[in-house]
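Morning F.,

Quick status update on the modeling queue. The single chain you submitted on Monday has been processed. Sequence for confirmation:
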Amino acid sequence: MEIEEGQKSPAFDKVMQLLQAYRSDVQDFLRETGYLPKNVEPAATGKMRKVPVVSWVTAGKWTETGESFHQEDAVDWIESDIKGEHNFALRVKGDSMEPEFNDGDIIIVSPTAKAVTGDYIVAKNDEEEATFKQYKKFDTTRVLHPLNPKYPDIVLNKDLEYRIVGVVMEKKKRYK
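C-alpha cells below.
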C-alpha cells in the first residue's frame, strides 16, 4: 500500500524479481525509468583516429587482467571517431552484459569522462582486478549492475575499495 501511494520505494532487487516474475522486459523498464540510456549517441568528431586495444575485461566478476590499460600495452588498434586522445579499447569477455554486449565485442573507453548513473563503466578494485558493468546510484548506494539477470549486482559499499577507470563511449562488434 505504501509503495502504491508513493510513500516507500521498493528495493531494486525486488523490482527486478517482480519484472522477471511477470515476464516483463527488464531492458524496456530500465530505459523507461531512466536507468538505461535511450539511444544515446557517442560524442563523435567525424574524424577517424586509431584507438589502442590494450587488453580485455571480464563482464561478470572482478578479474585480474594483468594490464594497466595504457596505450603502450596495445595488442591491436581499432578506428573510432570518439573524442579523446587518451581513449583506449578493451575486448569484452563473459556474458553478464548480454544482450547489449557480447563476448568478443570491443568497447571504446574514455578515462576522462565522468560516470553518471546509467553509464557503462570499467572499474578496478583495490587488488587491481577489473570488471565491466553498468553504474547506478540509488540515494547513497552505488551499484555495478550486470545486464544479464542471472548475475548479481555488485554493491559498492564502504568496505569495497574501487575506482572507475573509464566510461564506455562506443561498442564495436567483431564477427571473427
